[in-house]
Amino acid sequence: MAEGERQPPPDSSEDAPPATQNFIIPKKEIHTVPDMGKWKRSQAIEKLVALLNTLDRWIDETPPVDQPSRFGNKAYRTWYAKLDEEAENLVATVVPTHLAAAVPEVAVYLKESVGNSTRIDYGTGHEAAFAAFLCCLCKIGVLRVDDQVAIVFKVFNRYLEVMRKLQKTYRMEPAGSQGVWGLDDFQFLPFIWGSSQLIDHPYLEPRHFVDEKAVNENHKDYMFLECILFITEMKTGPFAEHSNQLWNISAVPSWSKVNQGLIRMYKAECLEKFPVIQHFKFGSLLPIHPVTSC
After folding, report:
1. Helices (H), the chain
2. 130 in helix, strand or coil?
3. Fewer CB atoms inside 10 Å of the end CB: C or N, the chain?
């Protein structure tokens, strides 16, 4: 072959780490408010369901203890200690043996995704850690683009079920909740994905999610409505009073506009909030380093 006809080298994929990648234990990198700039520039299903089923079973095996305080049941710390001890073994059941070196790094995000054992609270930062856990599995090739619908509506949905059980069983405090002025005490992502699921629905409109009958009849099929049902189970009083933000969103004319607005809100209220991102940990799969220019 002539020099001028040399074939270009194969294009490397940014999504899959090279075989020689050195995995590292993720650590906090956002120490001060100015460090938020790093985050904004960063590069940042059956086995998974079985993993989550194990966490669910451990809740059954760790009942709440009798204590004076109504909230923050200390049995959660016993449950969490088991996860802390077993996290790498659990992740190893999902990751193939040739990627075993990634297990300690990926396991950190699983442990970060279930709440804080000191404060016995849970919030959107923990939810983001589970999204990061799934992202890491995508980057090392365990999950693929073809899995994206199942990642959300099977794996993430099972995660939500387990988190709700944790919240109810151990009466966990909402971390960083804005109360009536926030979207939800515990979750955010399922509202984004759930609203996208309802775009162009033939009869369910945003106004219907404040209709008790519509929610009761359709919540099993739609992630957004399942979120609404959980809120109404956990809170008392008129919906417009305990969930004012959602009440206002119900007046938006279309699900596509709801979805677009929630994405903007998530960026502003979660991804760009120091109190949330200061706890996020960065490693080799989700680095803090700025994206390199093409």
Report:
1. 36-40, 46-61, 75-92, 103-112, 124-139, 148-150, 157-169, 189-197, 212-218, 223-234, 239-242, 244-249, 255-266, 274-277
2. helix
3. C
**Is 140 within 8 Å of 283 (Cβ atoms)?**
no
Helix axes 255-266, 189-197, angle to 10 degrees: 160
Average model confidence (pLDDT) across the chain: 85
CB atoms within 10 A of CB 62: 19
Burial 99-125 (b: 16+ CB within 10 A, else e): beebbbbbbbbbbbbbbbbeebbbbbb
Q: What is the per-residue pLDDT across 132-190, written as a single tens digit (0 to 9) for each?
A: 999 999 999 888 877 888 888 989 999 999 999 999 999 999 987 665 567 898 999 99
pTM attached to this predicted model: 0.81
Give the domain ranges of the chain.
40-175, 179-275
In this structure, are residues 104 and 151 in contact, taking their beta carbons and an 8 Å threshold? Answer: no
CB atoms within 10 A of CB 14: 10
**What is the architecture, at CATH level 2, of domain 179-275?**
Up-down Bundle (1.20)
Closest CA to 185 of 243, 132, 268: 243
Task: For the chain, give the longest Cα–Cα distance.
Answer: 82
Report how far apart, in Å, the C-alpha atoms of 202 and of each of 191, 198, 199, 213, 221 are.
Answer: 19, 9, 9, 17, 14
For residue 173, what are the β-bridge partners? 121
Rounded to whole angstroms, the Cα distance separating 68 from 99 reads 46
Q: What are the pLDDT digits (tens) for 45-81?
A: 989 999 999 999 999 999 999 999 989 999 999 999 9
In angstroms, the Cα distances linking 226 to 49, 86, 153 are: 19, 30, 12
Structure tokens at 181: 């002025």
